[in-house]
Amino acid sequence: MVSLRQLFLQHQAQTSDFPLMIEVEKAEGIYMYGSEGQRYIDLISGIGVSNVGHRHPKVIRAIHDQLDKYMHLMVYGEFVQAPQVQLAHALSETLPKRLNNTYLLNSGAEAVEGALKLAKRYTGRTELISCYNAYHGSTQGALSMNGSESFKNAFRPLLPDVRHIRYNSIEDLEQITERTAAVLIETVQGEAGVRTPENDYLRRLRERCHQTGTLLILDEIQCGFGRTGTFWAFEQFGIEPDILVCAKGMGGGMPIGAFIAPQEIMAAFKTDPILGHCSTFGGHPVSCAASLATLQVIQEEHLLEGVAQKAALIKELLVHPRIKQIRNQGLMMAAEFESFEVLKAVIDQAILNGVLTDWFLFCDNSMRIAPPLTITEEQIREACQIILTSIEEAVA
Ligand SMILES: Cc1ncc(COP(=O)(O)O)c(C=O)c1O
């Protein structure tokens, strides 16, 4: 009989010659269970998604309840659908008053596309700025904003009038001018290998955008929804965006994304032309129900409160001569090794030993560590011990 793995390779589009090929039968909490009974600790949350763990019971219940009522009814923005309205309302309650209007979509890249279009439409400008080593998604607009030539050059021509500045460079802020519609920036850079804002950088960026009438779009697709220890990462840096983009952890395992702006800015989509942004499935009711439950779990289970302490414990435990440094903002963490080769050997060995980690798109010598926020101290100790053993086995 043809195995699932053979069918996977034959019929499912591949984007590299080295997929992980782990076959999972079930996932629960921080664990994934393989088809031959293996148990993996998921230390990357499906790349920043399972912030409340896999199959959180309250998320599952919300999904079931919504399935019993309705699924897709109508394209985005026409019908009054309780799951969408309640989610949009709950999101605004987590945000500064100005950010009161949410456009719901299906993924991060889609939300980035919408945010970029909104900024161009609202300001009447065309120039867009993002950072080197930024990752904003894989669709053409989002790809244009990514800060890695090697990943995007093959797909040119991309969006015109896009320029890049260096993350954390005060000097480069001068490149933002009255021509610039928007600066799109990750509050904490993810795929660059967890790079955090330094020396008042975000405040200075915010000031420069105010001076030039440029909209500041914060991409919190990876760092939002509690990942860094506050509900939104920007709360820790004393600034507010004009547009906020989120996805990933927002859905508790279901696909969803959103961009959030003041109503007055979002209104630019209503005229000349009408339907300035459209989506059939945007804000799918089942995803919205899951997202609202996820938001409530983060709040009701006080998940933010444990983040700093759990990150500190990981840093305390992961001490080894092969680990050069650990960068982090809350539970968005990167453990740096001397090279990709060493890291890859450790990651492969850790998988054999039952812990799933990963590297970063634009930082291949660093191990991605971003466990569900629900991980316990005991589980952290076990996972870190397995990583240390794996280092010894792989590169001793
Ligand atoms: C910061 C950031 N922005 C955007 C995206 C794109 O999101 P999606 O893969 O849902 O399109 C990602 C995905 O990794 C991301 O990390």
From TrEMBL:
Source organism, top-level taxon: Bacteria
Alphabetized SUPFAM superfamilies for the sequence: PLP-dependent transferases
Pfam family of the protein (one): Aminotran_3
UniProt KW keywords: Aminotransferase, Pyridoxal phosphate, Transferase
InterPro entries: Aminotrans_3 (IPR005814), Aminotrans_3_PPA_site (IPR049704), Class-III_PLP-dep_AT (IPR050103), PyrdxlP-dep_Trfase (IPR015424), PyrdxlP-dep_Trfase_major (IPR015421), PyrdxlP-dep_Trfase_small (IPR015422)
Cofactor: pyridoxal 5'-phosphate
Matching PROSITE patterns: AA_TRANSFER_CLASS_3 (PS00600)
GO molecular function: identical protein binding; pyridoxal phosphate binding; transaminase activity
Protein family per UniProt: Belongs to the class-III pyridoxal-phosphate-dependent aminotransferase family.
Protein's name in the database: Acetylornithine/succinyldiaminopimelate/putrescine aminotransferase
Source organism (scientific name): Pontibacter indicus
